[in-house]
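Sequence, structure tokens quoted for completeness.
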Amino acid sequence: MSIKLNVIERPKADYKGGPSSLCPGCGHDQISNVIIQACWENGIEPHRIAKMSGIGCSSKTPAYFLGQSHGFNTVHGRMPSVTTGANMINKNLVYLGVSGDGDSASIGIGQFIHAIRRNLNMVYIIENNGVYGLTKGQYSATVEIGSKKRKGMPNEKPPIDLCKLAINVGCGFVARSFSGSKKQLTALLKAALSHKGMAVIDIISPCVTFANNDESYRSYGYVKDNGEELHGVDYIHHFEPIAEVDIPEGEFEDVELFDGSVLRLETIGQSYDYTDPTEALAALHNAEKEKKHITGLLHHSNEMQTADEDQKLVDTPLSDLSDDLMRPSREKHAAMMARFLA
């Protein structure tokens, strides 16, 4: 039996990592599998990828994919600034950041915003479950009002929608998906890896241990019964995949799941304009009012300069420049200082 190779003649095994230590059934593991698939299908050489993360269950996942890639696990909430520094030194790498809703919506929210403003050339994945899993189940800033876990009082604080925030700040690629929607998520990630500039993908990834109560909008049961697809439809059960469905634009289909429940999938037609940020914000707002999740490519634009273009970085990565090119001559240094003193 021959081993299937990608366009650069690499087997998928070259894109895998170590065994996962997350809870069985965790949505984060499905996301790791999608990352492996997307990078393999896009034909990116593993050593050209830099996988970055912060702190949290989500930030552990880079150990489970792309074992031959560069990697850096940063301090809690500081992944964007470390990635910025790495990007400025070597802009030729493909930067793939994995964060969580705690890492990005709380301690790291300022760094998240400014990375978008700079239009850092990276894919920013948020594995969003509305809960702090590593510290035993506190609510995160993205959890909806009224959510109640198995223990404790219902959440009374309004949630932060990271897709709304990214669109408002000017992000050129914003998408939302579900860890169980393998086909859609793979397509979105492949597109994000090809995007020039910051690409944010907010992925609803249910926590099977601390936030899988049926009342939670991010529980497995709630998402599968209240998902509304913008583009591309697919659904995968915990243990076995359900056959793919192909729903014509503007129509819907009820799909019976293994447990007997029904998932209504609707494909939005071409009338949705993902180039218009106001339409994306309106769609997110209406979905929140109707207590649904809309998924797919929410907004796309290539109008902003990327951070390396704005900084006018040379083609050769700074890490490869010789000392002669990195250090100005005495005369050039004196002329530069004279401009500041003028």
